[in-house]
């Protein structure tokens, strides 16, 4: 089976769920090898999700500088290993690394894939475009396919791989050290689960009128993440990092609760694959009701406190 490289996205050794999704996809098209930039013990979760090999690149250059050293090292691995594909999480850093690797290895790159498969020996990708209205299939015609896969494209499945760790050292060029990190600060934690990883997401829209307290209280009663529509974000009521939709995050939780959100196509693009969808909206004609499994017609200021109280009393 051909090797498939998976770039590991992690925070201080805590591997993100989208990386585990990539390992699951990699297993379906070949033999996964994880590429882990970091020191210490390699996270066991990588082998537990099927990584046969783990390339460990432990050097301060990868944390001291922006993405160029990582891209240079990954490109070297791609050249040496000639994998069937390279899978990267489709996010800001992932896309930048992928673009640099594709350029350095003279390969084609595909962004925002929602599925990756092998068809007649060729790696093919599926992309969902125009807010989920069209599905395109694409193949890379030059070099090694470098594919950025959207979070929540699949569910991570555990499967034991050998997890053989291979320490890799790459001489990073001065050119790649052109931009150094001077300081970084951790973003204040909300104490809630990460939006793209949460099993339950409770979102608020324009219908909140700018007061997210009921939405947050309900989310907390369920241990859920909080999301927001673009109308709420554009109004300055909630930070952009919590926006769900075409120009925000894609979520696919077990339960998605939309509160005071009309259900515009661009919002749906980020949540329509949720397993169970519930909406609270005072307009029974709101388009979100076409999509839901359960709908409550009512004012969220009345419905949500009752729901929160109901859950708390259980
Ligand atoms: P509205 O459409 O104004 O709906 C508010 C809803 O709240 C209404 O249905 C109303 O009946 C209900 N309501 C009002 N008061 C209450 C109450 N007290 N209780 C219960 N219900 C109440 N949008 C996104 O969300 N995410 C995106 O990523 C995104 N990307 C976009 C990209 C592009 C290129 C464009 C053009 C648009 C994008 N949009 C996106 C915007 C999108 O088209 C909608 O404008 C937006 O989703 C509307 O947000 P909303 O549902 O909160 O507001």
UniProtKB/TrEMBL annotation:
<dbReference type="InterPro" id="IPR001308">
    <property type="entry name" value="ETF_a/FixB"/>
</dbReference>
<dbReference type="InterPro" id="IPR029035">
    <property type="entry name" value="DHS-like_NAD/FAD-binding_dom"/>
</dbReference>
<dbReference type="InterPro" id="IPR014730">
    <property type="entry name" value="ETF_a/b_N"/>
</dbReference>
<keyword id="KW-0813">Transport</keyword>
<comment type="function">
    <text>The electron transfer flavoprotein serves as a specific electron acceptor for other dehydrogenases. It transfers the electrons to the main respiratory chain via ETF-ubiquinone oxidoreductase (ETF dehydrogenase).</text>
</comment>
<keyword id="KW-0249">Electron transport</keyword>
<protein>
    <submittedName>
        <fullName>Electron transfer flavoprotein subunit alpha/FixB family protein</fullName>
    </submittedName>
</protein>
<dbReference type="Pfam" id="PF01012">
    <property type="entry name" value="ETF"/>
</dbReference>
<dbReference type="InterPro" id="IPR018206">
    <property type="entry name" value="ETF_asu_C_CS"/>
</dbReference>
<keyword id="KW-0285">Flavoprotein</keyword>
<feature type="domain" description="Electron transfer flavoprotein alpha/beta-subunit N-terminal">
    <location>
        <begin position="4"/>
        <end position="185"/>
    </location>
</feature>
<comment type="subunit">
    <text>Heterodimer of an alpha and a beta subunit.</text>
</comment>
<dbReference type="Pfam" id="PF00766">
    <property type="entry name" value="ETF_alpha"/>
</dbReference>
<dbReference type="InterPro" id="IPR014729">
    <property type="entry name" value="Rossmann-like_a/b/a_fold"/>
</dbReference>
<keyword id="KW-0274">FAD</keyword>
<comment type="similarity">
    <text>Belongs to the ETF alpha-subunit/FixB family.</text>
</comment>
<dbReference type="InterPro" id="IPR014731">
    <property type="entry name" value="ETF_asu_C"/>
</dbReference>
